[in-house]
Amino acid sequence: MLEWRRTLSNLERAAHWFLQSGIQHPGGGVARYYNGDLNRNLAVSTEITGYTASALVYLHTLTGDKRFLSQAIRAARFLTHSAWQGEWQAMPFELDPPRFAYFFDCGIIVRGWLAVWRAGGDPEFLEAAVTLGRAMARDFADRGGDWHPVVKLPGKNPAAREPLRWSRSPGCYQLKAAMAWRDLDQATGGGEFDGPFRRSLEAALATHDAFLPGHSEPAKVVDRLHAYLYFLEGLLPAADDPRCAAAIAAGIERVANHAAAGAGHLERADVYAQLLRMRLYAAAGGVAPLDGDAAEREAGLLRSFHVVSPDARIDGGYYFGRQGGRWSPHVSPVSTAFTLQALAMWDARQSGLVPDRYLLI
Fold it and tell me: Domains in the chain and their CATH numbers?
């Protein structure tokens, strides 16, 4: 079986990992990642289930294989039927127990629902996305002009902020989640969600310069690159704004320089994948010329994260990262999804097709 898998392309093997590894539970929920130290999957994460729904739709778009759409629908229905807390009108971070809700996670889930709705046409997922989009604007708004990163359930009181943990602090990275509002605005045509997106965009543009390096430890700076790239991705819907175009062009170089400086301390597959995707989106949109040598180097680095193993739980996926020359024992759905998309976009770059931002995982 392993020899047969080795004859498949990296994309085919990564796609096989999503279907066969067990990372997605039979009920549709997706584990945060496979932990090689513990030899098991971590708990189901609503955020990662949302990301995986988008990834499976993307794979269906590439391959036409209906299994991917079927699994995407299963993930989306897990979120609507099992994860959504109707009594509280909230989407929890995890279900056992449902103690917190994250602004960022909610945006990713909205985008996952919309991806499945666009692919399959089921109004259930558009309705769910609208409901959660409204909850994001209502429950996370801070009087200071930003968005609370975390609220406690069921009361929705803001959780304490932690300045050295980006996921527990507001910041420019939240613009990736705010893309959900722009996508909802396009889907519904009512203008209801334009205001929250614009608020997020202006806040992100005003504060992003201070996000990097953001920490004295080189490995922590690399972690923040992943989040800063979320900010760059969130700029894509407004890339025709000269301020956004300038931030994208400068941000690509800024991230590349920090990634090179931190490579001896930590390398993350998602950082290289997000950086490569941004290069390709920026070039396709006329925002910044493509640095072909840098993109080729990043594509080569990404291929080195690919897992070849007789263990079906990890074979075909992508390692989360490496530190000090040693691989992390974790195989992540997000790292795998970002990487397979970045490499698919890179391999197809000569076709002249403009990448569709609605397919951005």
Answer: 2-359 (1.50.10.10)
